[in-house]
Amino acid sequence: MQSTMMSYPLTLAHLLERAGRCYPKTEIVARMPDRSLHRGTYCDFYRRARALASALRGVGLGKGERVATLMWNHAPHLEAYYGVPVAGGVVHTLNLRLHPEDIAYIVNDAEDRFLIVDDVLLPLFEQFKDSVQLERVFVVPLTGRPIPSAYENYEELLQSGQSEFTYPELDENDAAGMCYTSGTTGRPAGVIYSHRSMVLHSYTILLSAVFGMSSEDVVMPVVPMFHVLSWGVPHALPMIGGKLVFPGPHMDPESLVDLCEREQVTLCTGVPTMWLGVLQLLEREPGKHKFAAGMRIVVGGAAAPEAMIQGFDRHGITVIHAWGMTEMSPIGTVSRLKSHLRDLPEDQRYALRAKQGCVVPFVDARLVNDHGQEVPADGITMGELQVRGPFVTGSYHKRAPTPDKFTADGWFRTEDVATIDAEGYIKVCDRTKDLIKSGGEWISSVDLENAIMGHPAVAEAAVIAMPDAKWSERPLACVVLKPGMLASGEEINAFLAGKFPRWWLPDDYRFLSAIPRTSTGKFLKRALRQQIARATGQAT
Amino acid sequence: MQSTMMSYPLTLAHLLERAGRCYPKTEIVARMPDRSLHRGTYCDFYRRARALASALRGVGLGKGERVATLMWNHAPHLEAYYGVPVAGGVVHTLNLRLHPEDIAYIVNDAEDRFLIVDDVLLPLFEQFKDSVQLERVFVVPLTGRPIPSAYENYEELLQSGQSEFTYPELDENDAAGMCYTSGTTGRPAGVIYSHRSMVLHSYTILLSAVFGMSSEDVVMPVVPMFHVLSWGVPHALPMIGGKLVFPGPHMDPESLVDLCEREQVTLCTGVPTMWLGVLQLLEREPGKHKFAAGMRIVVGGAAAPEAMIQGFDRHGITVIHAWGMTEMSPIGTVSRLKSHLRDLPEDQRYALRAKQGCVVPFVDARLVNDHGQEVPADGITMGELQVRGPFVTGSYHKRAPTPDKFTADGWFRTEDVATIDAEGYIKVCDRTKDLIKSGGEWISSVDLENAIMGHPAVAEAAVIAMPDAKWSERPLACVVLKPGMLASGEEINAFLAGKFPRWWLPDDYRFLSAIPRTSTGKFLKRALRQQIARATGQAT
Asked: What is the pLDDT of residue B540?
């Protein structure tokens, strides 16, 4: 039996029209390279995004063709987020923290046709421009300085747009955006989002059970817009008209704290490293900063240490712990305390908040063991976390799906090892590849790291597997101490005792000045293993 | 270019699985016919809805076949809301306030195969059972009394379900639910919702900019579950695990207030008539009742009078004004004050809150005049409100779309006359058919009614057009006075003076003991016109 409902596609064109018609006066604030604040409105955004769409059609952008961006977080990037897809194109955000060679690889793999680039990022572009074939390059004059004659001016492109623009016909399954995995292993791989997946992801993260964003919120996406579409915030917030505050290129703790205070930001997003820096700043200057009441920070991209969640609580700021992947648009889980768990003892509440949390609507999750069997959700048994849903990828651009990434019955393999408890809270214990297999049992490197980082002398810790003749593998801890602090391996193991079975405790400690990281701030354990192996003369 | 996202349908099966897996301990409370409270959990709901689905497949329910319900608001009705569609069937809620002949017409038009009926509603069913061909009738033993031998027991049906039930393959465009328009004119017409439309409507009403429901909310849907699927709340709330409180058959103000207090309800839904009764109760006993802090009531189905919004504010309860139609799943607009309008003078804020409000995400709206031209959104110019979106109907069951209901370019004609202001707030001025056309200008009967209801002596008012030789039509006001109060037409017109142009004021007043209403509580102006015409000896 057919429903009588209209066939109406879920596209970004609706969201853009809604932003312009329902919320013309909502503010969009962005920090410029010279630290000044640029103030605009949704009305400006609406007009300029439509002008961009019209202009891109004018210069011949065809359906499904890619427009790359090499940009910080600011209003013109938001225009590209909407203007490209509503013109029928695909916005492809380039990660400016990658090595120029990797960026070139990605531009070529995606077959990008046009590029929009911040003037302040031209020096980066020029490092790889000869390795790519971009038809036209539009430069955003953020600094106000003249555009080098080799390039075109983005503002002039916009001026060529017609105000009477009509959107081309868009199917909700049409490609709308493209991001590459950060690739801790292997070459980056392209994930292509559809209008539908972006709309459904937007609806999802707005929910009170997820980010909980409202029209009254002032949201500062600190997650770069070149990193999984800034976790979807720039597509979600205009749906309900919340105010946007962009940090531009100024991502240091001082600038972020200043902007939070100035604009009375109520919600931020970002990776733990970023917020650890902010927390250290607040601890140095207790009570100095006046934030909006009820301020929240959504932390993801890596596990939020329990100590960090507690630390922000002391400053009246609530950390909301989320987990996701580029392949998931990216939000998969959020850890929020359910009403009936509010009265648990404090330590249990923090332990729950430090878990990755419950799946968001329209993400299915299951745990599968080495034998391909689903394991029980008992909070103890570990298994590989597999997911599916309308905003989870089913393949990679130009690559045949392989069984190490996708199961035969259509689930995405996250390569995370996790547990799920009876309340549905997921705890990511490790990456499949980082798990330490000792005497036939599994040791979570992440659990050890988080516990070690709870030691007052420890700034950072990464735990890796070392080959062991008797146990197959044994944990080795690499620790960065806080400036002026000292601690031995024995002292740290004494601190850990009681938190874990004895056989989990690291056999060895190495004290380093820094732990190698990926461009998105995650520990790069592959590099760490190589470094330790070289130092000990072992084969990796 | 194809996106790489998975093809994953938006179905109620996901919502049911989510409710059971993520929120097993959330409570569902329902008032029974004997006034006792039945307490269950989402875990019970999940098991019983799946048992129902399995049992319905067992008794041969095929894809797209209709299962009618004749039930109050309670847990078994919620089971049917999910159990029927996840079995591949279509849940068709019968409006028990209709005349038995109309119910029979609707059952036959929908070709319902099975019926689930509350035992307390069997006397109603028996008034039309001989006019319909239902294959099996399952009776819910709400009272605990034995089921008459002519019928089957719903609990026994559930027991026949298998616990290892696998959902049939569901397409998101499959029919999932069915409701009939209340039909102020003509025969009721069937609207068929899809899994997709229900999921998208659920996402929409959860948003902070719409109903704003969270996992912490305790929601009492007073809107009957037989009335446009209780405005979608029973499908939306389980998505985020909020607690549900059902009033059962006890819909009187005393019972509702008692339940709000007992369960500390934070959000209710209902038509103005219902809440006017509650407000009168509160005014009689000021300060007696202790409600949850921040309690909200979503009011729709008819315009919420400004005086009612103010009245509830005095008791610390916020009225959220919404507008919709059976054809819209049903929510189309919600009136919430935008942040930058918070500082307006009080009277302007109330005037905005008394408007129908801004369209919700994924509803498009436009105003069209008698010549088929779109009119400007200036807050003054009236036009017929036309809408479209993924949860707006594009036709009626078994009826060819007619130009009085659907435009050639695919919009649904609401038959409401409205204005839209520069901020996007829609104000419904009248039904197309109730608009008073006086001397070539339009007079809104609804505006007059709301203003008259602001007079301290007036309980209810309905304004209708009377034929007039000179002006074509002139307004006549039908007024029900509050008990023990008196007011003349002259006094009321003096009260209205200044609020409207002079030529808007009614020429004549009639004082009645009641105004005829539809089964869903709306003024039945057709009947009122006939009544007045009979009294004055005029032709209608």
From this structure: 44
